[in-house]
Design brief:
- The complex is a heterodimer of chains A (112) and B (117).
- Helices cover 0% and strands 51% of the residues of chain A.
- In chain A, a hairpin with a 5-residue loop joins strand 5 and strand 6.
- Chain B has 117 residues and is mainly β.
- In chain B, strands 2, 4, 5, 6, 9, 10 and 11 form a 7-stranded mixed sheet that branches. A 4-stranded antiparallel sheet of chain B has the order 1-3-8-7, with no helix packed on it.
- Classes of the chains: A mainly beta (112), B mainly beta (117).
- The interface between A and B is medium-sized, with 25 and 27 residues.
Amino acid sequence: GDSVTQMEGPVTLSEEAFLTINCTYTATGYPSLFWYVQYPGEGLQLLLKATKADDKGSNKGFEATYRKETTSFHLEKGSVQVSDSAVYFCALSDTNAGKSTFGDGTTLTVKP
Amino acid sequence: GAGVSQSPSNKVTEKGKDVELRCDPISGHTALYWYRQSLGQGLEFLIYFQGNSAPDKSGLPSDRFSAERTGGSVSTLTIQRTQQEDSAVYLCASSLAGPTLFNSPLHFGNGTRLTVT
């Protein structure tokens, strides 16, 4: 079946540091890939997505590139801010499975 | 437009009682999902609907859990004879996703926080 493996947290960075959160996947079909974010006290929301190999999703300074050869979708940001502190979830949606599969989430804390 | 609406937002119940959690998806969204999120944990998949059918019930933890969806819209998650380990935030999400729209993202409600005492 489908699965998503995320880098274990928690991750603590200083403001303006570079961020990478690793995500790899296995899928029976040809999936679309997503990053969702959950800010403290708020609901889950879509951060970015990519629907085919070599696509780059981007939003709010975050980027992730769909790498089919390494089955990866790592999240990156060049300079994090305190306001980026949140839980980040990698997910896939697969034609064969029909449902979305989520990773366990990575908690990011950015300190001033 | 309106997002995914869940009710109640908070529910405190005694062990052994039954509870019903409601989800109103975004109008026109054919796919509906229930997830459970325990404190400090990730998202645990419970059940997925495509229209009124549930092709995947594999995540329901036990036969005390059931869900239905009517009219391709509102869904109810029912937990019978609640136990303390059922305490969690229950999240509902909807999507346009289907066999030909699998790249459509999920839209989440704010969840129902269930506390079993």
